[in-house]
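Lab notebook, bench 4. We co-purified these components, and the gel suggests they stay together. Before we commit to crystallization screens, I want a quick structural picture of the whole thing.
Request: model the full complex, all chains together.
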Amino acid sequence: MIEVRGLSVTFKNKGRAVKAVQNASFHVAEGEIFGIVGESGSGKSTLLKAIAGLIEPSPRSLLIEGQEMGVKRSKADRKLMQFVFQDPYGSLHPRQTVDDILREPLIIHGIVDIDTEVSKALADVGLQPLHRYRYPHQLSGGQRQRVAIARALILKPRILLLDEPTSALDVSIQAEILNLISNLRLTYQLTSILVSHDLAVVAHLCSRIAVMRLGEIVEILNVEDLRNHKATQHYTSELLAASVGYSRTA
Amino acid sequence: MSSAQSSTMTWHDWLASETPTSRVQALSSRVYQSIGAVTANPAAFTGLIIISILILIAMFAGVITHGVSPYAQILAERLAAPSTTHWFGTDELGRDIFARIVYGARVTLTIVLLVSILVAPIGLAVGTLAGYLGGWVDIVLMRVTDVFLAFPRLVLALAFAAALGPGIENAVIAISLTAWPPYARMARAETIAIKNSDFISAVVLQGASTARILFRHIVPLCISSLIIRLTLDMAGIILTAAGLGFLGLGAQPPAAEWGAMVASGRNVILDQWWVATIPGFAIFIVSLGFNFLGDGLRDVFDPKKS
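Here is the predicted assembly.
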């Protein structure tokens, strides 16, 4: 479904080129949820944004359903793939009600019966009708992230990209949102890529995981190997050890 | 009485509700809260009162002056001192200054209104386009803005009024031409700050067109600071208009325009002070009113505060 072949992203800043992602390659099958982990600055979010079409990837490196894609995409291609951002405080327009926010994608794609679609989307993510005409500042972080998920799913995309969807939320809410995501994925048969620095989150949701470091994919392993700490690369083993916690004697 | 009280209570409840049930209610409750915030701010409230009075005076000029025409000349009573018949005295042609001040409010308001509807859209369009598109569009638009910004305001306005011929409309065009660049710069700066936010990326990913992103998502966020700036600038615009009038390039005789009235009183300022002083005072109060309102609005709507 998603094929990444030697994808690189280079940022040019005042004549200096920074390679944020180098030669990343992986494949995500239909219905699979693929995880990308790494420390901050490892390029995982950049890679996801390149797949989403927010950042230009290197030419001929990204195929979605066998079709080559860059930053310029048709409306239909946009509809195929939606994105949930990390920060629910920054991803909702501060002057629009939840209703306006959910209406917008439907209007853009000329979908009729907006009213029922919006109330259905709210119900899907576990929000009450009373939240519908509130502004984002009247909602909690978890509720905002639910709105962001509803906005992503209202177009019925087949691919959902998740950029650290829980890292801005406190722990009790994180579990709720993760369960919501995994339930919705089953209901809508979504193919997903989840980016996170939290190995527990990734292990909970994903079947295969790519480990990134300094813009490169160090290794791709499946979730059993991750749980059993069977990494082939030294860096991954270190990362896994760090996620368990450091012991004094070591 | 109790029923009236309960009905106002429900209105308040409906407007202040944290859980609006329709788009109309959500919008009205936001407007209601803004109005509440503005009236709670003393400076903004004073400014609002002054400007409301100005608007009322302009609307009911005929009633307020009891039908005295601002153009009626009574040469026998020229340069009469303020009295019960002529509250503010008369000018050098025996016209009642009170009536002229009252009708002059219309001229002032016309200028204010026309400049606002010219300047705000131009500034917004140029600024948001430059900020959002970036690249060569940004460079071209901003250099044009710089060129207009480099001209001294009154001098460019003078040149325009001189080239197009004197008159209120041309004065308005001249003022607008020199007034829009700061708005474009402001809108550009705000757009650049907003355009990389996630909520804009989200609509990009939904497949929204550039025009839709600009008008539906970016412009609404630029408007509040634009209105604040416009209100604060209004005093300057009124003074520029009065200055053009004073120099004979604004409203033409016999129109009652405050700046031109100050100019006509200049010759007799030592002996008949009221001819120049009273219109000057009117300009002062209205400018002050707009300044108060602008300051208050800034306090209320400053995004850095809330």
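The interface with chain B takes residues 52-54, 73-75, 78-79, 81-83, 85-87, 90-95, 97, 99-100, 104-105, 108-109, 129-131, 133-135, 138, 148, 151, 155 of chain A (CB under 8 Å). Worth comparing against the SEC data before the next meeting. The CA atoms of residues 88 and 156 of chain A lie 20 Å apart.
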